[in-house]
Structures are given as C-alpha cells and as structure tokens.
Design brief:
The protein is mostly helical. The chain contains nine helices and two strands. The protein has one domain: Orthogonal Bundle (Hypothetical protein af1432), CATH 1.10.3210. The longest helix is centred in the first third of the chain and has 25 residues. The mean pLDDT is 95.
Length: 185
C-alpha cells in the first residue's frame, strides 16, 4: 500500500502534507522499533501502514498552524480519519485513527469533557493499536518541535492533566513496550 499517495490525496496544502508525513514517519519508526522487541505475533505491515495513516483526518480540522484548513475541532481528526479510511476500503486502519487519541477516550471522557465527539469509547483494543497510540504520544505536529522525541516523563506529565487513569495506561504501556530510542534497531 502506498500510504504517502493516500496522504497526498487528502492534503492539497503542501505545508500540512509535509508535517503529517514527517510526524507519521516518526511515529511509524518508533512503533516498528517497539514491535521489533515484542517478537512474533505482532503485525508489522499493519503497524507501518496504520501508523502512517493515523492522522489523515486532520485534513478536515481547523488547525492552520500545521497547515490544516478544515472546519472541525482538532479532536475530531480521529473520527474523520476513520470515515476517510473506511471510504478507502481500510476498515482496520480506520479504527486506529479513531482510537489513537491520547491513550484512548472513554464514552465518559467524551461526555464529561463535553467533547465534540460521538459518545462511545474510542480506545485501543489490540496490541497494534496500543503500540501506535503509545508511539504517537512521543511526537508533536508543532513545526518547531516536529522531529523532537519527547521523554517519557514529559509524555506522562502531559497525560497527568487528564487524570490518574490516563497515566496508569501510559505506565502500563511503558512497562510493556519500553521506550526504544530513535537509534535503536
């Protein structure tokens, strides 16, 4: 699958495309480093493809700082990504888009936070989704820090504002996956 061609299809803005491509490459590389430590049973091809496509939905959000000139709230990029990839015939990849926000969102998170999302749980349900979501936490799409990998402490501090349940998920993932650096095989 040519994931870059699919991204190009939905990102006519060159700046937005460049940002999402670089971010996705970094996330995919980290996800594959993690998966390599886990042995057989992890779908590496799917991880590479889904990690490259996980943020495709930002093309429909209002995030001009990263070259996205849609109309919806940035948090909607997961559901937009799901719709895009389902329309492209990629239902499994589509679920990664919807489920990768932070460490996942519960229906209660959405309701209590009055988030502009359907009231349903959108959290990783398989190891590949967890790996991609975990890897994504370490990279921003902010142009100035795009290629800078955050430390686990910085990621954890960012999640702490959403409650101890979110940091507990991160800590569990950190224990399972470790934190292979960019130079690791």
């Amino acid at each position: 699958m040519n994931t870059e061609a699919l991204i190009e299809k939905y990102f006519p803005d060159l700046a937005g495309r460049a940002i999402v491509l670089e971010h996705s490459r970094l996330v995919a590389a980290k996800a594959l480093r993690i998966a390599a430590t886990l042995g057989n049973g992890v779908d590496l091809k799917f991880i590479r493809e889904a990690a490259m496509l996980h943020d495709i939905g930002i093309c429909r959000t209002a995030a001009p700082g990263i070259g996205c000139h849609g109309s919806d709230h940035y948090l909607c990029h997961g559901i937009h990504g799901r719709a895009i990839l389902e329309a492209e015939g990629l239902p499994r990849h589509a679920l990664v888009c919807e489920r990768h926000i932070g460490v996942g969102l519960t229906a209660e998170d959405i309701r209590d936070g009055e988030l502009p999302l359907p009231h349903r749980t959108m959290a990783p349900t398989c190891i590949e989704e967890e790996i991609i979501s975990f890897a994504d936490l370490f990279y921003s799409k902010t142009p100035e820090t795009l290629s800078v990998e955050k430390s686990a402490a910085v990621v954890r501090a960012g999640l702490a504002r959403f409650g101890s349940g979110k940091t507990a998920i991160f800590d569990r993932w950190l224990g399972l996956f470790g934190n292979p650096s960019p130079g690791a095989p």
